[in-house]
Amino acid sequence: MTATLPAHIRDVFDRFITTEYVTIDGRGQPIAWPVTPYHHPESGCVDVSTGLGYPKKAIDAERNPRVALLFSDPTGSGIDDSPMVLVQGTAQVDDADLDANRVRYERESAAKLPVATASLPPDFVRRRLMAWYFLRLYIHVRPERVYVWPEGDAGAEPELLDAHLEEVRSGHNEEPESGHASPDGGGSIWDRRLDALGGADNATAVLAVVGPDGFPFAVRAPVSADRGARVVNIDADPVGVPLDAGLACLVVHRHSPDFSWQTNFQVRGDLVQRDGRWTLAPHKLVGGFELPPGSAFSRLRLNAKKVNRYRKTAKAELTRRGAGR
User: Fold this and answer.
1) What's the count of helices (H) and strands (E) in the chain, helices before strands?
2) DSSP class of residue 291?
3) N-terminal to C-terminal alpha carbon distance within the chain
4) Tens of pLDDT, residues 174-184
5) What is the pLDDT of residues 111-169, one digit of tens each?
6) Which of 53, 79, 261, 281 could form a disulfide with 188 if both were Cys (CB 3.0 to 4.6 A apart)?
7) pTM for this one?
8) Which one, of 52, 146, 36, 39, lies nearest residue 99 by Cα?
9) What's the CATH number of domain 2-320, 1.10.10.10, 2.30.110.10, 3.40.50.720, 3.30.230.10?
10) Residue 300: which pLDDT band, with cuts at 50, 70 and 90?
11) Where are the beta strands (DSSP E) in the chain?
């Protein structure tokens, strides 16, 4: 489908170095993470990948192939006045040859992120000590529906570009409604990282929900933290976004233009209305694999426990997937 999209939309797919990838887990919880997109117009897909040591992005897509990609952070793309683009699509996971996927990942990431990959360890280290990261699961996302906010403003009406042409002509979504998970309820948790929301570096975040048609929907919106009430305020009412009380995910990430450093975390919880405004009541905060500004030693210390866990997971996944067949 991507070949039929306007050139400036294809440019976003080609040049953005991160996209917010959204899946839905087995309990109906939307989960969003920043990943690097690789556009392949010859197949009409936008591909993303995940390391074998943290395969949830792929496992969720295998269970439920309805996924979304939000292109909302143009940092490092070189595109001025970029639109915000949401792709809702169907996913297919490629684990047929994990070593070939490793070679492909090294080639594609070096082309797209040359500074970030310039200091990669030697090949034998990547193959043996860091196989949990470099053995990749690729997820091919075939766009079914594309929303475009021309100025990146979620307060404006988005333009709909759709693979289902009859839906575009009728001007509305005709997918059957499948519902979404209700709020969990219960008390909220709080984490000190949430206190920074609404500040200069984290004025916006990506909110992911499940739409009435069963597809994930995501949008970048202004946010602020209310420690006293233990909620994150969504400080806008995005036009055309199917917000309803239920499970939601908020992902916060930053990276340098050359991707030499990156930080990220996500918050899962209940999206509810309070006093006429949407808020997220946090139930779980999850930190991703991060490479913040600083020395290699500080990065190693930050991720040491995670790496041990990723190695164990990768070993189990190799067995489960037949060592890439």
Assistant:
1) 8, 14
2) B
3) 30
4) 555 566 788 88
5) 999 998 887 788 888 888 899 999 999 999 999 999 999 988 888 889 998 654 344 33
6) 281
7) 0.92
8) 52
9) 2.30.110.10
10) confident
11) 19-24, 30-35, 38-40, 45-51, 66-71, 84-94, 136-149, 159-162, 204-210, 216-226, 231-234, 246-255, 262-274, 277-287
* pLDDT given for residue 162 in this prediction: 63
The tens digit of pLDDT for each residue in 229-272 reads: 999 999 988 888 999 999 999 999 999 999 999 999 999 999 99
Closest CA to 264 of 34, 100, 36, 98: 34
The amino acid sitting at 221 is A
Q: What are the structure tokens assigned to 9, written together?
A: 């939309």
pLDDT at 312 over 80: yes
Residue ranges in the chain assigned as alpha helix (H): 7-15, 56-63, 98-112, 114-117, 123-128, 131-134, 165-170, 296-320
The pLDDT assigned to 128 comes to: 83
In the numeric block, which tokens belong to residue 300?
């190693």
Q: Measure the CA angle with vertex 208, ends 94 and 217; round to 5°.
A: 75
Q: How many CA atoms lie within 13 A of 117 on its CB side?
A: 13
- 260: DSSP letter: S
Find the farthest-apart pair of alpha carbons in the chain and give their distance in angstroms, rounded. Answer: 58
- The CB density around residue 325, as the number of other CB atoms within 10 Å, is 8
In whole angstroms, what is the distance from residue 237 CA to residue 209 CA? 14
What residue segments make up the domains of the chain, in order of their start?
A: 2-320
The rounded distance, in Å, linking the Cα atoms of 147 and 72 is 12
The CA dihedral of 174, 179, 88, 159, to the nearest 10 degrees, is: 50
Report the candidate in 212, 200, 210 with the shortest Cα–Cα distance to residue 174. 212
